[in-house]
Amino acid sequence: MVNVVNIRFRSAGKVYTFSTDGLPVKKGDYCIVETVRGKELGKVVSDPEEKDENMLNPNSPLRSIIRVATEEDREKDIKNREKEKEAIKICKEKIRKHELDMKLIDAEYTFDNSKLLFYFTADGRIDFRELVKDLAAVFRTRIELRQIGVRDETKILGGYGPCGRELCCHSYLSDFVPVSIRMAKEQDLSLNPTKISGVCGRLMCCLKNEEETYEYLNKKLPGTGDLVADPAGEEGIVSEVNVLRQRIKVLFETEDEKEIREYPAEELTLKAKRKKGPSQQKKQEREPEEPLPKELLEEEFGSGSKESSDGRGAEQRDRNENRKKNRRKKHKNNGNPPDTRGTEER
């Protein structure tokens, strides 16, 4: 058994586990720890607890807390934050000098100033070797540039969402969760991109918050167009479903008259599911009036926090493109037409 605590280094950043090594630490304390980037100052976000070493991540060795942070350590951390602002100004000037098509987002010093990291966004790969040399000459420390995605950019910069609250990713989300367009459909939301997209231009992370609740509630409810029977045995067609209130509006037709009545979901009995005719299938296949962007139609996964984002996705895309080109050249040299089956799916 080992005594461990969870430590976070930046607001809404990833949480890492460290051994207390017998030190009297508690939730809310600041500690100095050794990480892969050097010494860092972090905040303890959980009370100490004993865990079996076999239950910890075997791929990540458990590190120990060096010491509890002093007032001098806290003052040094504040000075580092001020130095980061100056580093951003200098880096932007160097980017303009080298005419690089990149957008600088943030800078971060390690606690012992052994490394200075810059986070940026760009449409493609950037050759910043000369930029790194210039920055190293100015700051006299190890320089590292990391390319991040639009979600990471929004997480760092922060802002307010359509709900009027501070962005989830900037305020409390440690990791990005998988979000897909199916979640919006499950919650009966408008598929208008402006309604379901966040500040980053991707699907809003909060779609995941109530997904399990909607899935559970929808299992108990009939769909629009289904045939149901009321407590008296009279059959009608479901015209509207209120998922949260668990109430259903049913359309009854008697001779030339139509009547809509509302019932609690538990009072109705499902008789038959709606049959999808050819016209209904065509209607479902028809795209919405405003086409959804490609990135909203595909299931989205967070690109990770800025601690782990390094732009390797761009390299993978380039390698895939090169493989396709080489494959086409090989077929051309053999006198056979290239096999393009499944190219679009890949």
Low-confidence stretches: 282-289, 298-314, 336-346
Spatial ordering of strands, largest sheet: 1-2-6-3-4
Large-scale geometry: elongated
Oligomer: single chain
What fraction of residues sit in β-strands? 15-25%
Q: Give the proportion of residues in helices.
A: 25-40%
Please write the CATH class name of the largest domain: Mainly Beta
Q: Class by helix and strand content? A: alpha+beta
Mean pLDDT comes to 80
CATH level-two architecture of the largest domain: Roll
Give the biggest sheet: 5 strands, mixed, barrel
The total count of helices amounts to 10
Cα-atom radius of gyration = 28 Å
Total separate domains: 3
Q: How many angstroms separate the termini?
A: 47 Å
User: Based on DSSP secondary structure assignment, what is the total number of beta strands?
Assistant: 14
CATH fold topology of the largest domain: SH3 type barrels
One letter per element, helices H and strands E, the order comes to EEEEEEHEEHEHHHHHEEEEEHHH
Question: Would you spell out the secondary-structure blueprint of this structure?
Answer:
Blueprint: E1 2-8, E2 15-19, E3 30-35, E4 38-44, E5 49-51, E6 63-68, H1 71-98, E7 103-109, E8 115-121, H2 129-139, E9 142-147, H3 150-157, H4 168-171, H5 181-186, H6 193-196, H7 211-219, E10 227-229, E11 235-242, E12 247-254, E13 257-264, E14 269-272, H8 278-285, H9 294-297, H10 312-333
Parallel strand pairs: 2-6, 8-9
Antiparallel strand pairs: 1-2, 1-4, 1-5, 3-4, 3-6, 7-8, 10-11, 10-14, 11-12, 12-13
Helix pairs in contact: 1-2
